[in-house]
Amino acid sequence: MAAVEILQRDRLSEHGARQRLKKLLDPGSFRELLDPFQRLESPWLERQGIVAQSDDGVVAARGRLDGHEVAALAIEGAFLGGSLGEVSGAKIAGMLELAAEANRHGRPTAALLLLETGGVRLQEANLGLAAIADIHAAIVDLRRYRPVIAVSVGPVGCFGGMGIAAGLCSYLLLTREARLGLNGPAVIEQEAGPAEYDASDRELIWNLSGGEQRHATGFADVCCVDDAAAIRRQVQDWLRRGPPPRHRSQRIDDYRAVLARLDAAEQADAGRARSAFSLTQGDVMEGGL
């Protein structure tokens, strides 16, 4: 690929959550709800000696994308690693629930989720878990009507309960730099030891949970270059298609069959994972559709 083309890319990962949404939505259609001026902060962080953020790390907006109405949400990975608590989780769940209600009243509304998150905020453990459960339920409700599209571009990735949320979405786009998983590398190493998963081995981590690998093993629908225009084109295509005939989370029997063939005593590597989990295959998308 030409060096000039690479330099000309508008890398979504280099922008904050609010600007990422504005890059993807139709010009002038971004309308933020519960913005920082509403001072909707977590009441729990100050008790831990942590400075709260006035939007609690989640940008919630309404807008249009290729003319389609969307509930647009972005998690700010730079704030506490994109972790979710009571307030930020409620913002996401509430927006998705409102979108589902709009569909039931004849106003087609899809959802776009920009996920850069380590999962539940430890300072708000049970409250965060309850909020993420509400997010899961809201995604399953909304996806019956219009697509729920998730995008993760890095550098934080998408882990924990929000990794499950990504799997529930109608479509999932990752860049090569993004990562997707349930537990992060440090957590796995802490619980199982470095012989199981060395959190300092960056090549191992991206080979197992990076965007290209997750696409090759069927856990993501597209692996795209980190470019706002290319990502927007892919999201447009999914909005035009509508919900898929069968969501990934409905393929329970397929995944059970794969797990039944795995030998958990063998150390996982990229090749073995691709061989076992390649339920869907496709080429890495270089420039969008």
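That was protein one. Protein two is written in the same sequence-then-structure order:
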Amino acid sequence: MCGRFAQYSSRDDYFDSLGLKPDEVIYDPEPIGRFNVAPGTNVLLLNERDDEFHFDPVYWGYGPEWWDKQPLINARSETAATGRMFKPLWDRGRAIVPADGWYEWKREGDKKQPYFIYHKENEPLFFAAIGKTPYGKDHGHEGFVVVTAASNKGMVDIHDRRPLVLRADAVREWLSAETTPARAQEIAHDAALPETDFTWHPVTAKVGNIHNQGETLIREIQTD
């Protein structure tokens, strides 16, 4: 995880939850409408630069020139702040992916059943992310990755990793250039939503095709 998620609400919905004022970031009342966000695509990413908030389309994946494999899409919160690959991004490239939920696949018999995981109160989610800055510039495959945490308190039956979802009141500090890397580690540990804040239900296998979109992908289905 995280390999697929949904970002379908409007910017208003996300930013209102963060308490951002109209003059702090450009607002667009139209829904983003992406029910099936896949790696290798551009994703709207909230970031701070030059003391202002920006919402930029950024490539989901990180593969620097020396990396001879597929671009990575996730970084473990336990090691991202210190590892060779991600430490520079953790230090200077912290960002947020506003989202509505994410998908996981669970093996059931001879097939894998997709599930949609979301906040119990249907509140917006704020995935911690790190990436190549400045985000207003195209860096090719040096984009961003979603920071993940262990799912060891009730969600391990779906998957052993999950996005690191921050509380809304921690987002500004996470993004701030004045926040030290060490303090960011504390935020990642102390301000992450617990597993008990989430719920999930089975959804159609059509979500497995990245070309499929629409609200039907997140609707609960009946399973055997």
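The CA atoms of residues 5 and 102 lie 4 Å apart. Keep this in mind for the problem set.
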